[in-house]
Amino acid sequence: MISDKQLTHISKFLSLVLRHQPEKIDIQLDQNGWTDINELIQKVNNYGIHLDKEILHHIVATNSKKRFALNDALDKIRASQGHSIDIELGYTNQQPPEFLYHGTSEKSVQSILETGLERRNRQHVHLSNDIETALKVGQRHGKPFIFKVLAEEMYNNNFQFYLSDNGVWLTDHVPAKYLKQNNSL
């Protein structure tokens, strides 16, 4: 089996091509983000990264963030969310819990307080069910800061929420008035 470092490298590369740049290895994603596994493996190998079905299935099964999903026939794969390209993931509007959380860096707080949470180059704003997950996300960007999102109030005011296959809550925008600073860190 290959090393954890190699698995991480392949997983990051798959995130890149399945979420942002399928053209990098000349694969096609359908309107729901799915691509053929055999073609993906061939194109990744042509790019100089060793990938086979066993490694791919291992990455899908063991990725702690459940970034990838296989279809029922196990012949197609897609990223669960986080696309910067136009993909219809087929999620339906769902009522979120009363509060959700968003982790960011302290340097972004002032801008977020002015504009709210924006999806920027992604299809959705990503929100977490718990503070611990939001903290891990925030730590990737510098000194972490956690916002508490008044999700139920937003939903009651006709904002739409979607729950991705890997448990990430998605919405189009969180206006600043629905954000509370979480000072419990």
UniProtKB/TrEMBL annotation:
Q: Which Pfam families match?
A: PTS_2-RNA
Keywords (alphabetical) are:
NAD, Transferase
SUPFAM superfamilies per record: ADP-ribosylation
Keyword Transferase carried by entry = yes
- Extract the InterPro entries matched here: Ptrans_KptA/Tpt1 (IPR002745), RNA_2'-PTrans_C (IPR042081), RNA_2'-PTrans_KptA (IPR022928), RNA_2'-PTrans_N (IPR042080)
Q: Does the keyword RNA-binding apply?
A: no
GO MF term (any one): transferase activity
Write down the superkingdom of origin.
Bacteria
EC number(s) for this protein? 2.7.1.-
Query: Family assignment?
Result: Belongs to the KptA/TPT1 family.
Q: State what this protein does.
A: Removes the 2'-phosphate from RNA via an intermediate in which the phosphate is ADP-ribosylated by NAD followed by a presumed transesterification to release the RNA and generate ADP-ribose 1''-2''-cyclic phosphate (APPR>P). May function as an ADP-ribosylase.
Instruction: Extract the NCBIfam families matched here.
Output: PRK00819.1-4 (NF002014)
Q: What protein name is recorded for this chain?
A: Probable RNA 2'-phosphotransferase
* Gene name in the database record: kptA
